[in-house]
Amino acid sequence: GVRRAQVLLAEAEIASKRRELAYEVDQASTQMMASRAKLSVGRNLAKLNTEIVDFMRPLVERGEASPLDVTQVELTGRSLQQKLASLENAERQQALRLARLLGIDPKQTVRIKRGLQLPLTRPAPAPLSDEQLFRRRPDHLMNLAQHDVAGAEALLDHAERWEAIALKVFVVRDQSVDEPDGLDTNTFTGIGVSIPLPLRQRNENAIEQARIDIEAAEKSRSAREFHIRSEYEAALLAARDAHSLALEASGTVIELAEKNLAEFRATYEQGLASLLQVQRAQEQLLELHNASLDFVESYHLAEALLRFVTSNYPGLDLTSAASAK
Is the C-alpha dihedral spanning 303, 304, 307, 308 positive or negative? Predict the structure, then answer.
């Protein structure tokens, strides 16, 4: 009936809100982990820059290096500190947002067990059939429940229309004088039908509206199913592509940049390389690390979107509601 359909609709709406919240938490935690990873890289490079300054100061005192070189390295260090401050602010804002989503004290430190790691081989879950996908999606179940509500309301309107036709059994006793026998009493039994006028205006509008609602729900259901299938295929392809790009950006190129910086630093200490070469190698390493982390973050966000599209969240069980459809 209408009541049951409305209950199922309410359950689907609650599940849909939980799904949206889970996706927001997934996104926020990924973005926060990416900021923390970039902070770690930046702090390591800032420490390395400080070591270069400490190495150069005795050289300046002995007249073996120019004070301008020390100043240049110190300016590079300040630039790194400014970038770190910006990242720290972003990470704080992301942590506050995540705490708000989780409903915990903003002062409480948010720790996430899973890191921003990149698997060498992307996990490949079994593809979902249309039926499996639709049964997982609360927005699709909402569409079905809305269809049921419209159908139940149409039946109710039809029932009320017929209830407006009053059916009654009546017994009439009629007294009359029938000569020559005198006073006589006649009893009549019959069925009376009371049809209120105008009947059409009373429920016809509601019935017509219910019919329109049913047709609209049917069209919405077809459009929703096509959208869900297309969304799933696009999210699956995006996750695959993002993994390939992240893997390429995080491969041997980072190792090569780290080796390059170490070699330039060693040769600089031996007087065989310039400070400019060391700084450029340091900048390249920072750029490559950040680019790599951007690709890894994009991959994890793509996986988060795929989880959202497939409603792949622990505790979001819609099997019973889907079965009731």
Answer: negative
6, 149 contact by CB (below 8 A): yes
Token digits for 215?
């047709």
What is the rounded distance in angstroms from the CA atom of residue 116 to the CA atom of residue 125?
Answer: 20
Taking the C-alpha atoms of residue 306 and residue 7, their distance in angstroms, rounded to an integer, is: 29
Per-residue tokens: 92? 């704080």
- Is the pTM higher than 0.90? no
Closest CA to 281 of 93, 48, 58: 48
How far is the C-alpha of 238 from the C-alpha of 256, rounded, in Å?
28
pLDDT in tens, the chain (325 residues): 567 767 777 887 888 888 899 999 999 999 999 999 999 999 998 998 898 888 888 888 888 888 888 898 899 999 999 999 999 999 999 999 999 998 888 888 777 777 788 888 888 778 889 888 888 888 887 777 766 655 555 544 544 444 443 444 444 444 444 455 544 444 444 444 444 444 444 456 666 666 676 677 677 778 888 889 999 999 999 999 999 999 999 888 899 999 999 999 899 888 888 888 888 898 899 999 999 999 999 999 999 999 999 998 887 655 545 554 5
* 157: CB partners within 8 A, 6+ apart: 203, 206, 207, 210
